[in-house]
Structure formats: C-alpha cells, structure tokens
Design goal:
Blueprint (H helix, E strand, L loop, with lengths): L1 E5 L10 H15 L3 E4 L12 E5 L6 H9 L4 E4 L6 H6 L4 H16 L5 H8 L2 E2 L4 H11 L23 H7 L5 E4 L8 H8 L6 E4 L8 H9 L4 E5 L6 H9 L2 E4 L8 H8 L3 E5 L4 H5 L4 E3 L4 H12 L6 H9 L2 H16 L1
Parallel strand pairs: 1-2, 1-3, 3-4, 4-5, 6-7, 6-9, 7-8, 9-10, 10-11
Helix pairs in contact: 1-15, 2-5, 7-10, 8-9, 8-13
C-alpha cells in the first residue's frame, strides 16, 4: 500500500501536537509495511498513490483535496478539529482577533457552501477524528453523517513509560514541581497558570517557546512571573531531557482553552505524573476519571485543582490506562484498518 500524507504549508514551522501526530502515524504505518510519503507537489502526482491522507481540514489544503477527488483517488482526512469561537472571545487573544473570529464564525453560518473546511470534510471518503466526542462535534458543526467517521485516537511513545528524573535534576536541580509543556500562546493559557500558582510556593517549570519573538503574550507571561517560575525554552520531542522532565515533575498541568487531547499530557501521564487538564475539548475521552479537570477561564479553579493534585502521591493508574489504550502502535493499527476499509 502506497500512501501520500498532505498537510497545511505551515506544518513543521513550529512543532506542536498536530505535527507530532502526523510524523508518529507515518512511522507506525511504515512499521506495518505501508509505504508513506510526505506529498511534494513539485515531484509527485496524486495518481501515484493508493490513497491520500490529509491532516486537518485547513482551507489551504482544499485545492489538493479537490484535485484528489477529481483524480478518483481515495481521500482520507484526519479532522483535528475543535470549535475555537469561545477561545477567541474569552481568552487573551486581543480585540482584533476576537472581531476576526466573530466575523468568520458568522460568515460560515451564513455562507456554509463557501466554507472550505466543510467541503473538505464532505468530500472525504472517510474521516478520522481522534475521539467519539470530536466525531460528534464534526457531525454537528459541518453536517457530516456520523457513520462516515472512523475514530483513530492520538498516541504516545512507549519510551515515556521508562522515563527517569535524574537527567533533568542534574541539569536544573529541580524536582517535584508543576510542569507545563507547549507552545507559549493564549490558547495554552500559561498566563493564567502563572497567576494561579503565584504565592503557593510550588515551583512552576514551563517548557516551550512562542511561535515568534517578540510576542506580546510571551512578554506578558515574563512580566507576571516571580522567582518560582522557570522558563526553559524549547526542548525537542526526541530529547531525553523532555521525558526526564515529565518524570521529575510531580504534577503536569495543561489548562488550555481546549485540547484534543494534548499529547504532552499523555506523555506526562505515561511517565507517572499526576495530571491536571482542561475540561474543554476531547480530554475526557482519554483521561476519564484518572485526572483532575479545570475550567481554563478560572484562575481559582486552576489553583485549587493543582493544590489538590500536588497533595496526592503519584500512582500507576493513569500510566496503565495510557499504556493499554494509547500507544502509537495502536494508532498505526487503527489507521491501517481505516485505509483497508476505504480501499475494499
């Protein structure tokens, strides 16, 4: 089986969960014997492949998706979707972004036929949402029949289960801290996290960087922090220091405005950390009752949940749950099953 992966042109410019999902899915499929190529429009033809797998419904991918259908090549789409209006209206995105988001929301409602994301989802031969909750949200927001979705969960590397804290402690001298990992931006809500933990005496470690510098949100975070907050910058996903950071922390915190479900939280949970996570998005499909959920709008809620989790000892309940359900090997098998369903 020969497959082409396609993604928006901005993919891989700043590494995040969607990029990791694509690359890890590619590796898992290759281990099953699938020949996977990152599509290059200058060197490749869609007709050279058994199917094309498009990651996200980003409008910029519409021309290629449309061409794939005209060429009568099966089209698989990983939806990677959650509605963003609440995030833009109530987070620290700025007045201009709020107005743009509100205008785009009403444009899609009034001119649904012109919504390229909707067109991509409707032209797909099969949709691969990351959870049942996401599948239902796509069906509700875009009018796609629920039976056209085949749930393929997000995954995590087995290596995080063997993580040890020593490397991180030797480098930074920190342990039993609260850890946040991710791009520094309003959606990830680090500013509220800093405010929530201020005065608790609990060390807060933030790994990640903004998409560009200078970045007003990042600058606001720097102004808000005190000596208990440690910004470590970007650490590569393949760096052993990242898995060691997960093992060294006591509590992992992801208080974002939404996540689907937040690969970093799966990694931290597999490494044995207590997890406090947003209740927005598809997190409950993955973390069930093994974590504490927070309302990203409430600094008080974040603070209380972290203090409660920080006062509890670590255990293996979440680690075992993730190991049984969300390794990348499982993702590869489910994706391969979806491909065979399309091609049969």
């Amino acid at each position: 089986m020969k497959v082409a992966f396609n993604a928006p042109q901005t993919f891989n410019q700043v590494i995040g969960g969607a990029e990791i999902q694509l690359l890890k899915t590619k590796k898992a499929l290759e281990e099953l014997g699938v020949e996977v190529h990152l599509f290059d429009q200058w060197e490749m033809k869609v007709t050279d492949f058994d199917l094309v797998h498009n990651f996200t419904g980003d409008p910029s991918t519409y021309p290629l998706c449309s061409h794939v259908k005209k060429a009568q090549v099966p089209l698989v789409v990983s939806t990677v979707y959650w509605p963003v209006l609440e995030y833009y209206l109530f987070s620290d995105t700025g007045k201009k972004q709020k107005l743009l988001a509100l205008g785009y929301h009403f444009f899609k409602k009034i001119f649904s036929a012109g919504d390229l994301q909707r067109r991509i989802y409707h032209m797909a031969d099969i949709l691969l949402p990351n959870s049942v909750t996401e599948a239902k949200q796509v069906a509700r927001d875009f009018g796609v029949e629920l039976n056209r979705s085949f749930v393929v969960p997000n995954g995590v590397d087995r290596r995080f289960a063997d993580a040890k804290p020593d490397l991180f402690y030797q480098r930074y001298g920190l342990k039993d801290f609260v850890l946040c990992v991710g791009r520094i931006e309003p959606r990830k809500n680090q500013l509220s996290v800093i405010r929530a933990l201020k005065g608790t005496g609990i060390p807060l470690v933030i790994i990640g960087e903004p998409a560009y510098k200078p970045h007003p949100y990042y600058e606001a975070c720097l102004r808000e922090k005190d000596d208990s907050v440690h910004f470590l910058g970007y650490i590569s996903h393949d760096d052993p220091l990242l898995e060691s950071a997960y093992a060294a922390c006591h509590t992992f915190l992801l208080a974002s405005w939404y996540d689907t479900p937040g690969l970093v939280a799966l990694e931290a949970g597999l490494a044995g950390a207590r997890v406090v996570i947003t209740g927005k998005g598809t997190t409950r499909d993955y973390f069930a009752d093994y974590v504490r959920y927070v309302d990203p709008r409430s600094v008080r809620d974040i603070r209380e949940a972290v203090l409660a989790a920080y006062g509890e000892p670590k255990n293996d309940l979440l680690r075992n749950h993730i190991m049984q359900n969300f390794l990348w090997e499982n993702v590869g098998q489910k994706t391969f099953e979806a491909y065979r369903k399309v091609l049969s």
